[in-house]
Amino acid sequence: MTDKEMWYETLHAGFGQYFSVDKVLYREQTGHQDLVIFENSVLGRVMALDGVVQTTERDEFIYHEMMTHVPLLAHGAPKDVLIIGGGDGAMLREVNRHQNIEKITMVEIDAGVVTFCKQYLPNHSQSAYDDPRFTLVIDDGVNFVSQTSEKFDVIISDCTDPIGPGESLFTSDFYQGCHRCLNPNGIFVAQNGVCFLQQDEAVNSHRKLGHYFADVSFYQAAVPTYYGGIMTFAWASDNPELRQPDAATIASRFAAAGLTCRYYNPAIHTGSFALPQYLLNALAD
Ligand code: SAM
């Protein structure tokens, strides 16, 4: 990849998106994946891992607000939060905004992503890594959730797609481990791909999660650079009421948290659990 060329994403064969590379800021073959961060005139700084867009400065807020404020406000009183992946630091930035949380742990397999994103994507993490409640663990997420004795109220799997190191975060072992280290009334959420193009991933996650959790579904948001339609977020807990809180409760918790967001609001929260019929049909098969 060099300056002034076009870069074509490799996630899907036969249908994709491209970016003009105005300037390559950093590239490294870390011990786990091929990491590149480059400037694009429309999206700002873009980070890709193994040829797949992970995040861009312009639209990251949609994904990170939805992956944090939905489960945290649905739970109502989270104290211990676990982030799996999330090396760019934006998920941590949004979790930190909830003052009632006492402990935040992030398990990231690739220390290089944390290091290089702190330097080249400073707007993602901002000062999030300095939060005194925060602990960084460098490990494979599936190892951590299978072995830790810690318990969490919300687990957020901010992982890559199920290729390369991310593959282990879509396995039954990982889901079983997450269920094991959740407190009662705990909530698990995970990025689960664009269901129009990655429907099998949603169906497989739904089936596997259903072996361990009593209530499994998805919620959704359209994130422009996760192209192809709505991105689905897997949702799993043992208490179905957590997925369908009344709007007034979410609104009062949102107000009490004192959050100002650019995508998330209480109406988006409750509306995001409405799913397209083609996905509901696939999950019912
Ligand atoms: N928002 C992005 C998306 O939806 O594609 C994910 C962004 S974040 C950069 C993905 C992170 O997951 C990366 O930092 C990657 O190193 C990390 N990761 C991949 N596999 C992992 C694993 N098995 N355990 C822990 N972290 C992992």
From TrEMBL:
Active site per database record: D158
GO BP terms, alphabetized: spermidine biosynthetic process
Pathway stated in the Swiss-Prot or TrEMBL entry: Amine and polyamine biosynthesis; spermidine biosynthesis; spermidine from putrescine: step 1/1
PROSITE patterns per the UniProt record, alphabetical: PABS_1, PABS_2
Residue ranges of domain PABS in the record: 5-238
InterPro entries: PABS, PABS_CS, SAM-dependent_MTases_sf, Spermi_synthase, Spermidine_synt_N, Spermidine_synt_N_sf
Domain of life: Bacteria
UniProt binding sites for S-methyl-5'-thioadenosine: Q33, E108, D140, G141, P165
Catalysis performed (reactions): S-adenosyl 3-(methylsulfanyl)propylamine + putrescine = S-methyl-5'-thioadenosine + spermidine + H(+)
SUPFAM superfamilies reported in the protein's UniProt record: S-adenosyl-L-methionine-dependent methyltransferases (SSF53335)
Protein name: Polyamine aminopropyltransferase
Naturally occurring in which organism (per UniProt): Candidatus Erwinia dacicola
Lineage, broadest ranks: Bacteria, Pseudomonadati, Pseudomonadota, Gammaproteobacteria, Enterobacterales
